[in-house]
Amino acid sequence: MTERMDEQELIRRVQNGDQVAFAEIVTGYKDRIVNYLYQFTGDYQKAVELSQETFLRVFFKANQYRPVAPLSSWIYAIASNLAKTEMKKARRVSVVSLDEITSHEVRSKAYAEDRPDSGLLKNLRQALDELRPRYRIPVILKDMEGFSQEEIAEILHKPVGTIKARISRGRSMLRKKLAKAGGRKPA
Amino acid sequence: MDEMSLLKKLDRVKAPPDFEQRLMARLSLEKRDASRRRPALGLSLAGAFASLLAVFAALNVFVLRQRPPVTVSQAEAEAPAQQFIPVIETFDYGTEFRSRAPESGTIYLLEQVSDTAPGGITY
Q1: In a 3-state reduction of DSSP, which class is residue A147?
Q2: Long-range contacts of the stretch A52-57 (C-beta < 8 A, 24+)
Q3: Does the ipTM exceed 0.85?
């Protein structure tokens, strides 16, 4: 509650053009937003670029924020919309050089936390990347970012029932893809 | 092990160390651009409005110049002798009904629409 009040105070200051308050918001959210966008796009460099764009919008569109929802929901909503737009653009133009892929992998590993990546995790990553955005976003927000279904509904501007259905379907699709990759029947 | 709990174990990434510096640099640039754009936008809007006004004035002066009001006698004098062709067509309902009678799907609804006797239809 106090955190939310602090955030409301911060965003109120940002609405008046306070860059110090803006920097505090950035410090508080940068890792979460970069990670969220990385899980969504699977591209670290793109995730960083989109995160920068997200925070710029937070600053310039701060007056559009209404305190009915938590600040985090609003920031994640901006990030989600940007990511979806980027995905649509990428679908239209999907030419990537081999060098770019290699350098991206090196960069993303550089900032990743040290954790051994087993075959199962690799399969899971691949399965997640293959999910359609309408299922991937709610699954990431729920299972990786820890949002409640109500909060996700707020972020994505969809009814809670739709979100529940998409999470359930997304998880089921993930299980099937994992089972297929592992050569066993889904549970 | 539940696959969903594995999602939490997927590699999490963090923002690069220079994230904030880059963001603040971009913010300064964007603010500067925005402050430049604002007067430019105002000027271009004013320019567009002035051009529209000039075009409107020119049209009024040179193209749509108002002529003095025309009197009836002037109009009659100027107008060529006009021929009026009266178009009067009588409508014979009796023939009309007879010619349509063989068509089985035809239903005639006759209703009186006026109490006064018809004085003929003039077109």
Answers
A1: coil
A2: A52/B19, A52/B22, A52/B23, A52/B26, A53/A82, A54/A78, A54/A79, A54/A82, A55/A22, A55/A25, A55/A26, A55/A29, A55/A30, A55/B23, A56/B23, A56/B26, A56/B27, A56/B30, A57/A82
A3: no
**Minimum CA–CA partner of B10 in chain A:** A121
Cα B109 to Cα A21, A184, B90, B106, B112: the distances in Å are 81, 77, 20, 10, 10
pTM for the structure as a whole: 0.63
Chains A, B: CB contacts within 8 A come to 85
**Among candidates B4, B15, B27 on the partner chain, residue whose Cβ is nearest the Cβ of A51:** B15
- Give the pLDDT confidence of A85-96 residue by residue, as tens digits: 888 877 665 555
Contact across the interface for A56 and B30, Cβ inside 8 Å: yes
* Residues present in chain A in total: 187
